[in-house]
Each structure stands twice: as C-alpha cells, then as structure tokens.
Amino acid sequence: MEKVKVKPGEWVITQGDEGDKFYIIDNGDFSVRIQDADKLGPTNTDGGTLVHQYKGSTTSHPSFGELALMYSTPRAASIIAETNGQLWALHRNVFRKILLNKTGKKELVYTLRNVRLAGQWRKQRSRRRRMKREEGAPEKDEDKERKR
Question: 54, 68, 81, 139: which could join 10 in a potential S-S bond, CB 3.0 to 4.6 Å?
C-alpha cells in the first residue's frame, strides 16, 4: 500500500476519470461531489454538488474508489480533501488480485484494512515496549506471554 498525503482542496479522485486506486482514509476530512454530465471537464472547478462527507479518525477509516475498479467504469464522483489528511492507496492490479480471493465488499475492506493496520499496530507495540524499558516500567503479563 502506498501512503498518500493530501492538503485542503486537493483532488484525490476526479469524476469521469479511469479508476486506478482504492483508498482507505487514515485521517482527514474528504467531500464527495457529483457534477452534471454536461459540466464535466477542465472547467469543473468546484466538483459539483456535495453528496457525502468522509471523516477519518483514529477509530474510523472509511474507504472509497472500489466501484470503478470492480466494474471497470469511470469514476462516478470526485473526492476532494477538505483538511490535511493521509490516505493509503492500493493499486488496481493488487486490488483485483485480492478481490478474486475474497467475496463481498465488507470482507475485502476488512482484509485490506487489517493488512495495513497490523503493520502499524506492531510498530506501535514495539515503540511502547521500548519506551517502557527506557523508563524502567515493568512489562505487563500479556506482553511477557506474547514474547514466549
């Protein structure tokens, strides 16, 4: 997965474009906008009508971009960053390989999130242990069990 940092006003997906990536929001706010078909093109500067808002947080990691990849259709909406944020992007080819092995969007999204989150969790756990050792704090029993 590729880390993608965005700034307010940055377009992540443009309606009508070919789908190339699936995105999971790590943090930040994103608006979903749909433009009338006759107004699509380079003059489309506002993205159209606001139809949804995604808010990423430490407890919620929404995802988007799967429809264009699953059905080989152009992007149905534009996604624009409203705040600074970070996304995790999965390229179309990898997404399709995973999709062949999984059925249902919930299972797919769960699998994709766990791939990324497991790596982050391991890093955070190692960092916490290192900080405890430096502070001289005793380890929890559950940490000792995991080492065995």
Answer: 81
Whether the CB-CB separation of 21 and 94 falls below 8 Å is answered with no
Distance of alpha carbon 99 from alpha carbon 69, whole angstroms? 10
Q: How many residues does the chain have?
A: 148
What single string gives the DSSP state of each residue in 88-124?
EEEEHHHHHHHHHH--SHHHHHHHHHHHHHHHHHHHH
pLDDT digit string, tens, across residues 49-63: 899 999 988 888 899
Question: 2-102 sits in which CATH class?
Answer: mainly beta
> What is the SS3 assignment for 27?
strand
Give pTM, 2 decimals.
0.66
Residue type, 115: V
Which letter, b or e, does each residue of 21-38 get, where b requires 16 or more Cβ atoms within 10 Å of its Cβ? bbbbbbebbbbbbebeee
Q: Dihedral through CA 95, CA 12, CA 64, CA 17, nearest 10?
A: -70
